[in-house]
Amino acid sequence: xxxxxxxxxxxxxxxxxxxxxxxxxxxxxxxxxxxxxxxxxxxxxxxxxxxxxxxxxxxxxxxxxxxxxxxxxxxxxxxxxxxxxxxxxxxxxxxxxxxxxxxxxxxxxxxxxxxxxxxxxxxxxxxxxxxxxxxxxxxxxxxxxxxxxxxxxxxxxxxxxxxxxxxxxxxxxxxxxxxxxxxxxxxxxxxxxxxxxxxxxxxxxxxxxxxxxxxxxxxxxxxxxxxxxxxxxxxxxxxxxxxxxxxxxxxxxxxxxxxxxxxxxxxxxxxxxxxxxxxxxxxxxxxxxxxxxxxxxxxxxxxxxxxxxxxxxxxxxxxxx
Amino acid sequence: xxxxxxxxxxxxxxxxxxxxxxxxxxxxxxxxxxxxxxxxxxxxxxxxxxxxxxxxxxxxxxxxxxxxxxxxxxxxxxxxxxxxxxxxxxxxxxxxxxxxxxxxxxxxxxxxxxxxxxxxxxxxxxxxxxxxxxxxxxxxxxxxxxxxxxxxxxxxxxxxxxxxxxxxxxxxxxxxxxxxxxxxxxxxxxxxxxxxxxxxxxxxxxxxxxxxxxxx
Lengths: 321, 216
What we know:
The structure holds 2 protein chains of 2 kinds. By secondary structure, chain A is an alpha+beta fold. Helix content of chain A is 24%, strand content 31%. In chain A, a hairpin with an 8-residue loop joins strand 6 and strand 7 (162-170). Chain B is globular, with a radius of gyration of 19 Å.
């Protein structure tokens, strides 16, 4: 009942806009990710400024925390090189684009894992000098380029497994990729090395074009998914669901709202392409687009946090508690 | 094997019965029956060559060593401890996800146990919300440890012995493989809140952390 009341009250509240066009560098990074991954997300780095021990952000609503899930593994990987590395990267790159696919679930409690890459975008278009912060990583030559690699423990959800991280500065970009949790240290090395090299080349060549509308991308945080894999942590997405989008602004932390959109293959609108979490009670906003808006509460955690967690899960980042 | 060792050691203590039963139709875990203290703490020495009784319960007395029990004096009033713990669910390289997992712990000296719940299956089908019981300070998952988790509140009293018994009873009667697991509930926190309510323990979810599923 509480959930229903929260949903109803959220419907009538409008989001607070802070629309801003993506920079050309960010558009290229997002387009490159869209070409390779099923889920792509964008976030301004200030939203990732969290205490690495508690996960709490000093600047943003605690109730917004599930929105960080697509980007947390980046922090975990960089932390493997030291807390200074996390801080240095966050200082030098003002936004990140994340791409993910091949979602898999934890054993027991924990979060879903995926093949993921991240692209950090430098504000001034230059190449920050971060070599000292990557000293702990090994150097490898892949297709003639020097890249940094290192391993981190996956933790409780994938016991005795590690992920391999790859990083390289490509002009104004920092490209970081990681594997799914590995049984053996060098499993799939050739395949992953090639993939990483191809990603780096795509960023260098800069030919990909972003086709997403500004209504989604002109926000400081957005996630977009072209649904391919329907089995996710928590259930299966409906067969007629084609794409999902989520975006939010944080201009007013007292009234931060998250908008969730689902687009189905049935444009006659007879059947809502609503994901398994039907408690969201999505409303049709225009032909073929079903939407839901959730107002994030300030202070104590509420059902709105659960709803946002449900939304983010539908992009592949479900968590088992 | 661990259960047998546990059973043996408990029998040797002579004060507690632990009776694994055949799996029930709806509960795949062994049932647990712990006779929690109810006012007297049994002593472990006696001189009688026969069974003796403490507080209405029979305990064996070893005729060769004299070990067993005797009725304790009034001063041996037992107290128990029941505590709700929660801990962060972490991802790669111990980065907190922001979500917390709650579990129960009771202590009735010399025994203690951790009770919690979680999904029966693995990706992509998480299955059902099933419960787990483990003697000691650590649950069936290593991070569910009283050494590293945060206490959300504790009761230490004679009444807590009754509460501990009711937590056990909730564990025993929870119908495993029946309640479909869902990421934001019913989940482990749902089970923990229901167990506390069943045991009559006044609990509120930790206010400063996110415990999805609590109170559903």
